[in-house]
Design a protein that fits this description.
Layout (H helix, E strand, L loop, with lengths): L9 E5 L3 E2 L7 E5 L3 H12 L4 H15 L19 E7 L5 E7 L5 H11 L4 E3 H10 L11 H12 L10 E2 L8 E2 L12 H13 L3 H4 L2 E6 L5 E7 L20 E4 L3 E7 L1 H4 L4 H10 L4 H15 L5 E7 L4 E6 L3 E6 L7 E5 L2
Parallel strand pairs: 1-16, 5-6
Antiparallel strand pairs: 2-14, 3-9, 3-15, 4-5, 4-10, 7-8, 9-10, 11-12, 12-13, 13-14, 15-16
InterPro entries: Ntn_hydrolases_N (IPR029055), Peptidase_T2 (IPR000246)
Enzyme class: hydrolase
EC number: 3.4.19.5
Amino acid sequence: MRLPLLFILIVFKVRGHEVESSSKFPLVISTWPFLEAVISGWTAINAGLSSVDAVVEGCSTCEVLRCDGTVGPGGSPDENSESTMDALIMNGATMEVGAVGAMRYVKDGIKAARLVMLYTEHTMLVGDQASAFAISMGLPGPSNLSSTESMEKWTKWREDQCQPNFRKNVLPTNSCGPYNRKEDVNVGDETCLVEDVYGSIVMKSSHVDFYNHDTISMAIFDKSGHIAVGTSTNGASFKIPGRVGDGPIAGSSAYADDEVGACGASGDGDIMMRFLPCYQVVESMRLGMEPKLAAKDAISRIAKKYPNFVGALFAVNKNGTHAGACYGWTFQYSVRSPGMDDVEVVTVYP
C-alpha cells in the first residue's frame, strides 16, 4: 500500500516539473511514492554496492512490501487466480539486461532477473522455465504466490461475472467463459470498422488505474555516474494467463545508458510496450532534448494513437536533471540525492 503523505518530507506539486541537483550523485529515482524502496536503494548505493545491486535491493523491498498490491507476490491475480512475476534489470554501462516474464512459483522477481543477466547469455526467460532456472540458481521455491487478499479479489471478480477482463472479439461477452472467438471478426478486413477498433481501445483502457497497473521502475546512479535501472510487477489484475506486460521489456518499462541517462515507466503496459517509450526518451535526450521535453514527447506519441490510455514516466539525464510526464492520471515519482535530507516526492499532472 502506498505510504501516507506524513512520511514524506517534501512534496512538490508541479506541472512539467524539472529539477537539477546541485550535488548530483549518487541519485535514486523511482516511480510512485515507494519510499522504503528508495531508502533501500539509497542505503545500498551509499554502502558501496554497485548500481545494479542497489536497484535489486530497492525493487526487492517493494516486492516484500507488496507495494500498492501490484508489486511482488500475493498481488494481482490472473484469470486463474494465480499471481505471476515480471521483472527486469539493466546495466547502463554495459547495456546488459536480465529479465523474467510470467514467472510462477518464485517470489523474487528482480533477483531472478539479475540471475538471468549474471549466469546466462540470454536477455529474458519466461514461464515455468524461468521459475526452474531461478530455483536452480538458488532462489527459494516453488512457492505459492497467492495471498488471502489476492484470492478474495479474484473471488469477487468471479462473482461479478469476470468483469472487467482483457478479452475482446469473443463470445460470451459477459461471463467467465469458456470463450469462443466471434467468427465475423477478421483483423485487417474491411468489415473491421474503425468505430469497432476505437471501441475496443476504450474498453481495454477503461479499467486500468492505480490499483491494477502500478510498476516499480527504479533508476540508480552510483557516485561515478554509472546507471542501472530495474522494474518489478505482478502485472495487470485478471490478465489472461501467460500475459507478459512491459515490465520485463527493455526500452518500455525502463532503459539506461551511462552516456545519456535513464527512464522509468508505469501504466498500461500492453499499450506502452508498443512504443518503447523509455528507449524513445533516452534517444531524445541523446539528441539534446531536455528530460522534461523528452518525457512529454514520448507520452504524447502514445496518446495520439490511444487517447484513452493511462501511463507515466520519469526521465533523468546524465547530469542528474529529472522530470516526469503523464497522461490519464496524476503521477508521482520519488527522488533521493546528496542534497536532500530525505526522500522527496514529485507530483506531475497530466
